[in-house]
Design brief:
Strand content: 5-15%
Radius of gyration: 33 Å
Number of strands: 10
Structural class: alpha+beta
Helix content: 40-55%
Oligomer: single chain
Amino acid sequence: MTMSTGQQPIRSGAGPVRPLGVLGGWVIGLVAATVVVQFISDFIDWAHYADFERRWDNPQSGSMPDWQSDLWAGVIAMVLLLGSGIVVIAWLWRARRNAEALCAAPHRLPVGWVIGGWFCPVVNFWFPHMLMTDVVRTSDPRTPADAEDLARFRGVPAPALVTAWWMLFVMSWLLDFVSLRLSTPELRSKTTGEYYVTAYSPSGGGSLVAVELIGTGLLAGAAICLGLLVIRVRQYQVARAGRPIAPAAAAPVTDAVPVTAVAPAAAPAPMPADDSPRHKHADTAVIVADSLPIAESGDIERSFGRVRDSWHAPEILDLDADRLRARIAVILAAHAAEGYTEVSVKTSTDNKPTLVHLDSFHPTRPDGWRPVRIANRGNGRFALYGHSSIYQVSEIPPDNADLVAELVTIGTTRGYLKPYEPGAGSIIDGRTKEIGRQLHSRGGIDMMRSVHAAVAERVRHHPGLARELEHAWDGIGSWQR
């Protein structure tokens, strides 16, 4: 009954996310078994009551066996219901912890209510619904990971399914109390031509069986809704930990972004050296960031604080336009070297401050999301923070950032040495050699070594590429590695 293909912890931009597959399978399996056994118990009660009424209509003596509800199936159903409750609470606890790691938005209730909310009188009529609703919303990839308030994302679908589950469950639960009242033994008596007959029967008569069947039917509906929620939350959390869906509220970069009136500053010029997609993304991110409203330092700090722990981000970087563009270029180059080749640039105005959302995606890895956030500080300065990986790339001079990015692209797409050809051997890639000469003319062997180290860091997941680059530059100046 499990729904998991593997139980290794998923690592997202928000840290480790424990798998829900096995627990979800137990929830679905035990709840389904509870419903089936409860139906069996109800039908046995129905058969017992029908047999009792037949004997009551045609008594064979002055006394007859009392009506008794089914025992063995009822006991099994109660044991299964207890087991189901335990695994549902365990599943909800893990789903809540995962959701907290995946989305910074605060939940309405402390995590302790995941257990207490089911047992505390009065509030247990709505607290579990609130808990499940918040888990679904924060798990949904359409809710931004750095959302400040879940109330802004109440339009995200799925809470309707939560409401259906909870209403069906509560109605079934209330009918259990009605069944208990209707099953109270009541002494019946009548006089026939030969006998004075007495026996105990349920006070509710046939209504008891009808209420039991309706209650179990409602429980079955709640079980179906819960199963769908279990599957949906797991899918949401895997998607959010891997490749989140773009938030519905996020505006594409082509949309107009309101600009706060400030003293005009020189617009950042596009990076000229390369026409590659990552340089275009870097240009786009800087230009859009420059058009954003000026962000207050306090708002930037609060936005950063919501994701600091989950993204393992040590600090906010303060950069000018040129350094920001260069930094983004090498970040995207490093991400691309690890297979994060899909890039999205959007703006979001749902929280303060307005930010540029620059996200890199890996098409297959479960940890396939690398978020970067950019805010406009004004006067040509920008705040940059995001996934821990963006702090692991060393900053290099802006003049060389484009060359580093280009070398990473060459190495990861076609290699620095062309494939071996009979009679010709391995031929050095012409552009790789040209970049080496350009670096040597700019700063000699030291600059070549600096760029080589930056490239080696970004292609470290591709064994042999750094060594291949060393051979490609042999013979340039005094280069000899």
